[in-house]
Amino acid sequence: MPQTRYARSGDVVIAYQVVGEGPFDVVVAPSFVSHVELQWEAAGWATLLRGIAEQARVLVFDKRGTGMSDRVAGAPTLEERSDDIRAVMDAAGSQRAALAGFMDSVPMSVVFAASHPERVSALVLYGGMARVLWAPDYLFGDTEREARDELGEIIDSFLTPGAEEAVLRRDVPSADQDEVRALARVFRYGASPGTAEALYRMNMAMDVREVLPLVSAPTLVVHQRADPSVRMEHGRYLAQHIPGAAYVELDGAEHVPTAATAPRLLAQMLAFLREAVTRAVPEPDRVLATVLFSDIVGSTARAAELGDARWRELLAAHHARVRAQLARYRGTELDTAGDGFFARFDGPARAIRCALAIRAAVREIGLQVRVGLHAGECEVLDGKVAGIAVAIGARVSARAAAGEVLVSQTVKDLVAGSGIAFDDRGLAELKGVPGEWRLYSVASS
To answer: Which listed site, 43, 299, 330, 364, has its alpha carbon 20 to 30 Å from 216?
Structure first.
């Protein structure tokens, strides 16, 4: 049993283990519910982790809210989960690592790889999806009824003695009874019924399709052909939309790696990682970022009313308050023009909360702001960001009403589970940007 260690991620403590001493690091982001100690009793996971550790140094952790990590209210966002990956890497002294995301950790792994390309040498995605639910342009997703039925099974498995083994058996048909029991213990000790429900509902709401083209790390997508929980079309979609991704379809009918299927998965992973981590590391020239634009409503009229000297004092107070909130929410100020700010964040939920805090802070000095946010691919130039995502952010801000925080659909999709509520503002044309864009006003947080 490797020693369990702890890393601090904001106000939360994350449990992790380090296994092996290989020449490169691999971070393993576990499945729906995990437990860093009990999972060693499950033959499939033990085979997989020990096999990777023969070639690399493995960092494996419990996501916040599960296993031996701190419990949290509700479900963590993709952004918070990505922060936990960074916290574990920092605590273990890993500057750059391959990242292996399993099942529902696939979206968080995609977001981390796109947001922090300088820290991800390669990406392996197993048994996951870009979104859960059906959509007109995503026909193989679950219907809401199918998703609700599955959630009901998960909750019943907690409430009915022994039922979790029956539910798990569907996902691991090749496992013997000892392995099923071990996986059931991981599930039972890894999360409470309320946590499992919150996590599942968060997964139902998330959508990272817009992020897939922004992944620059060498990527391998692996899926079992007859996976009983996640249709193989989900895996194919991931591989088709991540630039240069390789796709391997295993001839299996399981969702969770077991003693029977782990060796085949391990062979594919190790062959890919040995080659991928040796590639030259280009300086990242594009990154997933959330951009924020704000400006004071009615600034010209207010300046005329106050006069130059008093307006300069008020503007200085405004700038100080905006900068205080940017520092608080880890935003990076990129430009200030007149009464407006342009800032960058590595997480959309932080950006929204910063916008709300800015709105409240400047209201105290008698000012109103409008704020617009968008998340997307940004070109990195001398520490600053540019590109179409920046232009979209500026156009979203221009459409915001006085006192409003307005966001794009992409931002909304990436903050599933955050508790932030939105009002649909409908489709809009953004000046100079092709197509129509659905916009949302932030209602609360």
So the answer is: 330
Residue with tokens 């809210």: 65
Residue labelled with tokens 């369990």: 4
Percent of residues in the chain assigned helix, strand, coil, to nearest 5: 40, 25, 30
Q: DSSP letters along 315-357, please?
A: HHHHHHHHHHHHHHTT-EEEEEETTEEEEEES-HHHHHHHHHH
Enumerate the domain spans of the chain. 4-276, 286-444
Whole-angstrom distance, CA of residue 252 vs CA of residue 242: 24
Give this prediction's pTM: 0.89
- Region 371-375 average pLDDT: 97
Kindly indicate the confidence band of residue 445, based on its pLDDT and cuts at 50, 70 and 90: low
Residues 57 and 88: beta-carbon distance below 8 Å: no
Q: Give me the phi and psi of 434, to 5 degrees please.
A: -65, 150
DSSP output for 200-253: HHHHHH-B-TTTGGG--S-EEEEEETT-SSS-HHHHHHHHHHSTT-EEEEES--
**286-444 CATH choice from 3.40.50.360, 3.40.30.10, 3.30.70.1230, 3.30.360.10:** 3.30.70.1230
Partners of 59 in the β-ladder: 18, 27
CATH code matching the domain that covers 4-276, chosen among 3.40.50.720, 1.10.150.750, 3.40.50.1820, 3.30.530.20: 3.40.50.1820
